[in-house]
Amino acid sequence: MTYSRLANPRETRAVLEGFGLATKHRLGQNFLVNDEVIGRIVNLAELGGDDVVLEVGPGIGTLTVAMLSACRAVCSIEADRELEQVLAQTCATDGEKFALVMGDALRVTPAQVDDALAGLTKGQSLCQPCQPNKFVANLPYQVAATLILKFFQDFGSLERACVMVQAEVADRICARPGNKTYGAYTAKLALLARPTGRFEVGPGNFMPPPHVDSAVVRLDRTPMADPASGEPLSAGRAARANAQPRADADKQRADDRRDQRHLRQTRPERIEPLKKRIECGEAAARDDGIEDERAPQRAPAADVAGRVEHKPRNGGGKAEPVVQQQRHAQHAALRDVGKRMNIVQAEGENGAARERQKTFAQRKIRPK
């Protein structure tokens, strides 16, 4: 039994040459050319006539063609614009069941997928609105782990995922607590889905062959339950429950980025300690009865005409207005604070340099 007519090197090469295309390493394009592996993926996913499949990275449509003949509809997300015309031709046989979204899968929203599938309901193939309930794909390896977690969070209707990933990523997905590959990603994914199947795929099954081993992993969604009643949540309630924490987390990250930009601009970690040291030094001087010669003197009071009461400076002439004298005092104060901050900063840098020299001496390392 043939699952996909494109799953062999000759047909794959003919399609690429017919459109004048070549594989792009930056997009993680390694086309599957073994029909037996295609059949194992379809069987492991247990596709049926009512399933709506979400796919990422269809390439020339090798896996897509096999799924279109086994399910209700397929919505594929592709980042390479040059493959749009290729998919239109290779999937033309079941084109009424095929929807394509062009863009980066990490940025595609559930609303875009729903709009693409809604276009199929206007035709003769689908008479009712549908949402994807299975995620089946030969994923780009550089974003595979992120996509799996993102789609289970964003698409509350997903019940199962059957995806091709790098073997090391599959080890992390299937790891058990206490295993060296078990980590934060495994624990977070376990809250959403659990691995229920796996098989290995060698590099020789791809064109061009990747430099790593691959594996197909099946994940079934972990049912969410109401903490109060213990009853399973519906798909809609589960989607809302996943969406709210994600929205709160996005808002928190935006606030954190804004605060970090403010900190980089104001640099309070340098300004505040210097101000405190200057204030402490001035307070100690006042307690000792010492008056700083550099401290600006307060301007004398002015009469009604706006003139100072004491004698004019430079031995005669008109007295300076109070406003101008206060401005001079403010400028002098700012210059004085700036000089003190530079002195304190230089002392801090010299102290840090001495500490580095001491560390180098202890380690017997010559500083660069």
Helix content: 40-55%
Strand content: 5-15%
Distance between the terminal alpha carbons, to the nearest Å?
68 Å
Low-confidence stretches: 290-311
Computed CA radius of gyration, to the nearest angstrom: 35 Å
Classify the secondary structure makeup into a structural class. Answer: alpha/beta
Q: Secondary-structure element sequence?
A: HEHEHEHEHEHEHHEEEHHH
**If strands are numbered along the chain, what order do they take across the biggest sheet?**
4-3-2-5-6-9-7
User: What is the mean predicted local confidence, pLDDT?
Assistant: 79
Large-scale geometry? elongated
How many strand elements? 9
Could you describe the largest sheet, including whether it forms a barrel?
Answer: 7 strands, mixed
Q: Number of helix segments?
A: 11
Q: Could you explain the architecture of this structure?
A:
The protein is of the alpha/beta class and 368 residues long. Helices cover 45% and strands 13% of the residues. It has eleven helices and nine strands. α10 crosses α11 (322-363). The longest helix is centred in the last third of the chain and has 42 residues, at 322-363.
List the helices and strands and how they pair.
Blueprint: H1 9-18, E1 31-32, H2 35-45, E2 52-56, H3 62-68, E3 73-78, H4 84-90, E4 98-102, H5 110-121, E5 134-138, H6 144-154, E6 160-166, H7 167-173, H8 184-190, E7 193-201, E8 206-207, E9 214-221, H9 235-266, H10 268-287, H11 322-363
Parallel strand pairs: 2-3, 2-5, 3-4, 5-6
Antiparallel strand pairs: 1-8, 6-9, 7-9
Helix pairs in contact: 10-11
